[in-house]
Amino acid sequence: MCRHLHQLAHALPPACEDGPWLIVDAENAQWNPGSNYWFDVAEFKQQSANSDRLADTVALYSGDLLKSVYADWLFYPREQLRALYFTDLNQLILHYRVERDYVRALEYARQLRARAPLREDTMRQLIALRYETGDRSGALFEFE
Predict the structure, then answer these.
(1) Distance of alpha carbon 10 from its chain centroid, rounded?
(2) CATH topology assigned to domain 64-143
(3) What is the CA radius of gyration of the chain?
(4) If I label 112, which of 33, 68, 80, 81 is the partner at 20 to 30 A Cα–Cα?
(5) Whether the Cβ atoms of residue 40 and residue 85 lie closer than 8 Å to each other
(6) 51-108 pLDDT, tens per residue?
(7) Domain spans in the chain, listed from the N-terminal domain onward
(8) Which stretches of the chain are DSSP H helices?
(9) Sign of torsion over alpha carbons 128, 130, 132, 137
C-alpha cells in the first residue's frame, strides 16, 4: 500500500499552496480537504440533493465507480451511486411527464433503460410515454 501511495503522490501535479494533495499517516490516507480539487462523485452526490439541477447531475454520472477495479469494499459505494443515479433519472422522467414534455421524458427513460435494461418499472414508463405521445405502435414495440 505504501508503494501505491508513493506512486500516486509522484503522479499528482506539484503540491498546491494549501499543502500536499494527499495527507497520509500510519492509519489513514485522504485528499487534503483544504486543497483546490474537484471530484465528480462528490459533485454528483451534492447536486443530487438539488432537484432543480438533476439534468446536470445525471450528466455527471459516466458509469459505475471504478468499473475496472474488483474489490469487496467498492460494492456498497458503487451500488449507492448507481441507485442515486436511477432515482435522479426517475425524478426527471416524472417531472417531464407531468410537464407533458414527452420528448425529454422519453430521452431520460431510454437513458435509464440503457443502464438497466431489465428494470420493469422503466419498461412500463417507456410503454406509457410512447402511448401518451400517440405512438401506439411504438408502445406495442416496447411491450414486446
Answers:
(1) 29
(2) 1.25.40
(3) 20
(4) 68
(5) no
(6) 788 888 888 888 888 888 888 888 898 999 999 999 999 999 999 999 999 889 999 9
(7) 64-143
(8) 2-11, 40-48, 54-60, 75-98, 102-115, 120-132, 136-143
(9) negative
